[in-house]
Amino acid sequence: MALNRRQPTKMGNFFVLRCLLIVPLLMTVASFFFVYNGIIFLPLVKMRVEGGDAPEIAAEGVKIWRSSHSAVLAMATNMGMLEYYNFVGSLRATGYSGHIILGTSESLGDELTNYLKSQNVTMKFQGEKYTEYKVSHARFFLYRDWIENCTTCTDGIMLTDFRDAYFQADPFATAVSLGQQYPIMVFEELVDGEHSATHWLTNGVVPACRGYTFGDHQPMLCSGSTMGSREGILEYLRAMTTEIKHWAATEKCRFDMVGDDQSIHNYLYYTNQLNYTTDEGHVLNAVAIPHRTGAIHVVGVQAARIYNNVSQTVGCKEWPEPCPERANYYVKDDAWQNWLPERPGYGSPNDTTRLLDPTTGMILNLDGKPSAQIHQVDRFNDLPKRWFEMMRALGWPYNKPTFQ
Ligand SMILES: *[C@@H]1O[C@H](CO)[C@@H](O)[C@H](O)[C@H]1NC(C)=O
Ligand SMILES: *[C@@H]1O[C@H](CO)[C@@H](O)[C@H](O)[C@H]1NC(C)=O
Ligand SMILES: *[C@@H]1O[C@H](CO)[C@@H](O)[C@H](O)[C@H]1NC(C)=O
Ligand SMILES: *[C@@H]1O[C@H](CO)[C@@H](O)[C@H](O)[C@H]1NC(C)=O
Ligand SMILES: *[C@@H]1O[C@H](CO)[C@@H](O)[C@H](O)[C@H]1NC(C)=O
What we know:
The chain crosses the membrane at residues 12-36. Keywords: Membrane, Transmembrane, Transmembrane helix. The chain has 404 residues and is α/β, with parallel strands linked by helices. It has a single domain (66-404), classed as Spore Coat Polysaccharide Biosynthesis Protein SpsA, Chain A, CATH 3.90.550. It contains eleven helices and 16 strands. The strands form five sheets. Strands 5-4-3-6-9-8-12 form a seven-stranded mixed beta sheet. β1 and β2 (39-41) form a beta hairpin. The relative contact order is 0.14. It binds 2-acetamido-2-deoxy-beta-D-glucopyranose (5 copies).
């Protein structure tokens, strides 16, 4: 069954290592338990995940991430109003009450500044810091500084791309409900025997710089979306910034390309250099969350295939030639929520569950629930154009009920 094809297997280890027998009781599951080494663990504490703000669970065991003490960080320099409305608007509409920390330009204009203030967004300016690195690399140093400077960012942390991402549910409440509270979580892109870390983005540069070559059994990991605990993410950032410094200081590792932070991210993960050591001395490696099973859903490869199919069907010319016939191509009779055909496996032949909920227009995980964050949505290009217009106009009405 596709649902279970590659679920992470380390959950038991992490929880049992911490002598933790606490499992959040999910809102729809009446009696929930998990099995580890043949032992059934029943939840000792019942709790509801409400708007992402779960009460702290005291004493021994993993602290349940509270959204109010969590943080979403992104670089949002040179972005337009619509990108801010999509990202911040959709995130706040999930009920997420925690920190949103954005790297912004200093000249945002009054309208945008007031909007971001009204949404309790913390704006950060890069200034002269780390300008010796390209922005895609500098952001990892900046994230580290911003987290260290945020004394109330104690629980979950998400580092994410900005322009091509939006939210449908609280990512931290989602991670808690999925039992995915690992110190470092990296996210797999689509896996189907064609797309893997043998891609030029990774195998184009890592063999030259580090003498390491990826194989086609290694799913591509997206460096634009990472989650974890405060402590885990600071370790991740230590590893990333150490490696970035090495690349900057080494002639054969200096590439004039966009995206080699993804090369570094994959290299560190697949050479076991992303880990967090607990207070008890246990080394916990970063956990790769399989495609469509976690709080972040990287839609890029599948979206691009769907979009290319439509472009070919309609007979669009190459970008930048306009192609108005393609916008909202699948929307019929003004049912703007139904912007993709109900055809499981479209653009991702191994998937047996549909990608879209036709009554809301929300993109779904393999389990049929709305994915908390959608990333690389720009690969659908203008297929969901009207859906986004309606979401902004109506204030993301479908986001609210997800975790109530
Ligand atoms: C912003 O913070 C204030 C004070 O904590 C709170 O009352 C308000 O609801 C918050 N607004 C949003 C959009 O989170
Ligand atoms: C650190 O946070 C304080 C307020 O909490 C702020 O005034 C200061 O500018 C921040 N520094 C950096 C480097 O972000
Ligand atoms: C997906 O299907 C293809 C054949 O269509 C197969 O080669 C590949 O191994 C499958 N991938 C997974 C992850 O099941
Ligand atoms: C943890 O990561 C560091 C580099 O960040 C590496 O040197 C070390 O070998 C890793 N530990 C394990 C047990 O994989
Ligand atoms: C492209 O779309 C057509 C019709 O919409 C469909 O029959 C075909 O299977 C699609 N191709 C792929 C590769 O999904």
